[in-house]
Amino acid sequence: MNRFASELRQRLDAIQAQGLHRVLRRIDSAQSRLIRFNDQEFLNFSSNDYLGLADHPRLKTAALEATARYGTGSGASRLICGSLAPHHELETALAEFKGTGGALSFASGYAAALGTIGALVGKEDIIVLDKLVHASLVDAARLSGAKLRVFPHNDLAALEEILKWAADRPTGSESRGSQVLIVTESIFSMDGDAAPLAELVALKERFGAWLMVDEAHATGVFGDHRRGVAEAAGVTGRIEIQLGTLGKALGSAGGYICGAPELIDYLINRARSFIFSTAPPPAAAAAAHAAVDLVRSPEGAERAAQLWANIAEVRAMLGAAGWPVPEFSSPIVPLVIGDETAAVAAATHLRERGIFIPAIRYPTVARGSARLRLTLSAAHTREDLERLAGALVEIRPTLPLS
After folding, report:
1. Per-residue pLDDT tens for 298-310?
2. Reduced to 3 states, what is the DSSP secondary structure of residue 59?
3. Same structural domain for residues 29 and 123?
4. In terms of pTM, does the model score above 0.85?
5. Cβ contact 236:41 at 8 Å
6. Which residues are designated catalytic?
7. What's the DSSP call for residue 129?
8. pLDDT tens column, 243-257
9. What is the DSSP letter of 77?
């Protein structure tokens, strides 16, 4: 073993000793309520495929037809010759769906976050993050070079103090023209709770800040038209930047930004992760477009209603089994255990019963807050939920929950 491999082996051993080592699981099936790995079938309560669209015939047909017409790859970046018709059609559909003036698609939600934040703010500016925002938003904020401030999760009073500090900064040459960007998620990926968007909008307008909201876990699920929490809160037109993903409730792959036409035009010219990336495959764009159309249809409404019925059923089951039930309802139900080793053991016990719910540990969540991240889909049946409840009742006495 050479020095490089030896050093990495030592680092891996340290990760292993902390109970934080991770491995990839090869899934030998389509993404659905049932998945297959290690030659065994598992009931899947870990996916972000909230509406059960990842294996939907309409999305698969759209992908196949796009591949037949446009090929497997886009061949170049969007600004060279890779801006294919499916990309433009997807962006038109996203803008109409979200009720914004424009939309721009990216290869991933991570790329959308990196490119957008880096384009909008720099060293003269201030970016303010909710403490629990996704890693992509944290990385984008750090890489932007802007002055970084973090407020405790959903703490509006703390955010207001930061905004007051920003407003009172000296107006010398170094800070002249600086902008403040507030960044939050609408539904937080590990806790499943919501940001107080109406209050955040009022606060950012009072101080002249911009607001970026990541609707990754809300699009397709919340709001009368399933546009997200911004719609549910009635503030869609008052948010400067909406970020989202095509790989969760929309069942495809990629990310997007929705906002004013000027924002989209600016990102086309300044977002480096957009400019310097080969365009996403036409199949992915076409599948995402089909998903947007489906979410807006009566079938989309039916699937969302079934998802919410499943959420209510599981919350009642958890309460009856003695598990703490989160105050806020969403497809993400964190079963917080605390100890990393205990969380891994709980996930193993469930796997032995044919149920897959992964243990989420540091650094994805804070140390001492390891959990089972239970997620629900419209595809889950009543029998699936009863089987889950029975397994959770079995393992509950073995766990150090308060």
Report:
1. 999 999 999 999 9
2. helix
3. no
4. yes
5. no
6. 48, 134, 185, 189, 214, 217, 248
7. E
8. 999 999 999 999 999
9. B
